[in-house]
Amino acid sequence: MTRAANYVVAYEATERGREAIELGIALARLTGAQLRICLVLPQSTSVPAKVPTSAADYEGIIARQAQLWLDEAMEWIPADVVATNHVLWAESTSEGLIEATTTFHSDRIVVGASRTGILRRFTIGSVANALLHASPVPVALSPRGYRASGRISRITCAIGTRPGWEALLDSMVAVSDGLDVDLRFVTLVEVDADAALPSSSDLHLSAVLRYFNERQRTEGAVSTEVAVGATVEAAVENLEWRDDEIAFVGSSRLASPSRIFLGSTANRMLHSLPVPLIVVPNDAV
Amino acid sequence: MASKKATAVQTPGADAGVEFIDATSAKTGLSSKGLSAGTIGLLGATVIGISCIAPAYTLTASLGPTAAAVGTQMPGIFLVGFLPMLLVALGYRELNNAMPDSGTSFTWATRAFGPWLGWLGGWGLIVATVVVLSNLAGVAVDFLYLALAQIFGNPGLADLAGNIPINIFTCLVFMVGACYVSYRGMEATKSVQYWLVGFQLIVLVWFAIAAIVRFADGGAFDATPFSLDWFNPFSVSSFSAFAAGVSLSIFIFWGWDVTLTMNEETKNPKTTPGRAATLTVAIIFALYLLVAIASLMFSGIGAGALGLGNEEISGNVFAALAGPIMGPFAILLSLAVLSSSAASLQSTFVGPARTMLAMGHYKAFPKRFASISPRFKSPGFATIIAGVVAWGFYAVMRVLSNDVLTDTILTLGMMICFYYGVTALACVWYFRREAFSSARSFFLKFLAPLVGGVILAVIFVTTLIDSTSPDYGSGSSIGGLGLVFILGAFLLLAGVILMLVMRAVNPAFFRGETLKRGTSTD
Q1: Given an 8 Å threshold on Cβ–Cβ distance, is B125 in contact with A51?
Q2: From the CA of A263, how many Å to the nearest CA of chain B?
Q3: Which of A134, B199, B266, B476 could covalently link to B401 via disulfide, CB atoms 3.0 to 4.6 Å apart?
Q4: Model confidence at A170, in pLDDT bands (50, 70, 90)?
């Protein structure tokens, strides 16, 4: 992975868009990447009825409004982060963002994931959902109410025992290269209250640690932990989370090559995760 | 600084003078129009054209009123009625080519005539589309209950549509659903559109052939043999009837001209729109003539139970004729019309909402109309208002009128004449300086729209005057004046009053400060 990085930030003039920018800022501070703040406008493909719908002055008006929204958003970017803004047109927001990653040679898409609803903290909005099933690059999900802290102190990586965990570790190696950030590897275990903890979890984590230590170049502390709970959601809640940390998880083995697909475990993690989550495709470098 | 709830476009700094949007420069950005630019070929554009006209819906709504006006001369009237449409569309295309960064009657008319007529042109378009929204929903309600009756074999279900509170409530459900879909910017996929059009065409041809077969078998309701004289529009009894027939023809071809303005989306902008428009009208023409003739042969124009002159069925003839003509396959016709109406209902929101947005942006309407939903990037407020007004209009009409569908169609014909007429004359006036520069200019930019506009003006005035009679339309009247007239006059007067109110509240647009007048040689 190159170091001359940039991230596409999915912006819209809502709280969710603000949360995406905040996460973009936090990640940019961590890695020194630039931000490409993109607002995608819907390209209408609807069949007109009776009167023309492809009114060019209408499109000019919303393009202008989009630019004004982006100009407002730029005011949140602090001086230590480099950002550019872009108005894009696409049939759907996720399509536009994915196309932007190709155009800009981006390394990640940052998107606000919260849903405007009465459900729990982390139910996914539709754009995030679409991206999580189609993106060719890692997707960073920003939770409700997120604000960038001064720095990110720890990255937690949720590692499963299923095949493909080496790929996730490779991307963790790349992410943490040369950075002063703690790393924590976590396995989530669902157990009944009175069942014994399977020892395979510890074994697996040792293997993870060994694999990682052979390759890592990080400057922070590395630790492992087994998270236990009646459900995956409970296991996640039982972990201790810092305010300024982020989580990584890999893609399901169902993912087509070099696309993301959020596996069932990762999906359930999201319901109770209080920190941003980055989902990594299986063969990301 | 504006919060995230900022809605209307705010020019940083002073609020004076909203400059005209130069859409080409506003559309920069890495994936500008590139994604679907030039992807639509001849077939796709034709499908869009047919879909835009929604023939199944249009026929069921207009066969009755047209037969009532001109009797067996329907085929001839369709031929004649297409002529002003064609002439106006030719001028319309010239305007579109000259001002590609404009979009609607509102912008063209304002730039040609100035703010007052431009405002009224925009108002005419909005009123026409809102009225058709209510009619679409009404037809969909009828066919929903008819389809349910056919599926469950319980004819009593179809009568539910006659129950006013149930009808109004079902219409509300349809309207809310369509409004919601439009608000969120969700759109049907291309394959769905293709299927819908194909289905409509097949079922309508089936219907027509079945009707002719019944006639040949002697099973027609009121057998009326075909005669070539049906193609003679001048056999119509009076000029009033002729004008009413032409007005209705304009309604049935309404939407045809949209393909002519689809420049950027087509593969070959110089040839595809024109060819698609020609192909669309040829198919639609053939279809309309076939169905009209077949219906006439089967039903006759009398006022019997299934006669096309029967006021009780004239607002929605297929509902009554489907069973007798198609037998057990009548359900297909119900589904064809239901799907055609429902799809059109949702996509018809887009036109008025965008026009209202543009008018709000240029301060011709209150600022609130220019608000864009930050989440869906669609004209949120305008979409909701269109839905509320369309449903409210339907509810009131349902109570006041004997046959709301017929009356609204007749009003609609007037409104379309009005705003098309304004657009046509805007074309003539806008191009006045270069009208005589070449033969092509003279014909396309001057003569065609002039003749078309004049024809429409004559039709408009004639139907307006004729509709004062209490027998006009479904025979509903208020205080001795025909309901259709009251409706038409009300809608136009409301426009004038609102325009004057807007002028008082915020004169910027009316002083020409936001959208400037010009001519084509500027």
Answers
A1: yes
A2: 27
A3: B476
A4: confident
The verdict on A49 touching B (C-beta cutoff 8 Å) is yes
Collapse the DSSP code of B483 into the 3-class scheme (helix H, G, I; strand E, B; otherwise coil) and give the result.
Answer: helix
CB contact under 8 A, A90 and B361: no
User: Is residue A133 within 8 Å of residue A163, measured between CB atoms?
Assistant: no
A117 CB near a chain B CB, below 8 Å?
no
Return the minimum-mean-pLDDT range out of A45-59, A226-240, B68-82. Answer: A45-59
Which residues of chain A does B372 touch, with a Cβ-Cβ cutoff of 8 Å? 61-62, 65
pLDDT tens track for B457-504: 999 999 999 888 887 777 777 777 888 888 889 999 999 999 999 999
Quote the minimal CA–CA distance from A49 to chain B in Å: 4
Nearest CB to B27; choose among A44, A51, A59:
A59
Domain A154-280: which CATH number of 3.40.50.620, 3.20.20.10, 3.40.1350.10, 3.30.70.890: 3.40.50.620
Q: Report the residue from B107, B255, B261 with minimal CB separation from A50.
A: B255
- Check CB contact under 8 Å for B29 and A49: no
CATH superfamily for domain A6-142 = HUPs (3.40.50.620)
- In which region does residue B479 sit, left (phi positive, over 0), alpha (psi from -120 to 50) or beta (all else)? left
Q: Which residue from A17, A61, A90 is facing B9, i.e. has the nearest CB?
A: A61
pLDDT in tens, A196-218: 566 677 777 777 777 777 777 77
Do the first three CATH levels of A6-142 and A154-280 match, i.e. the same topology? yes
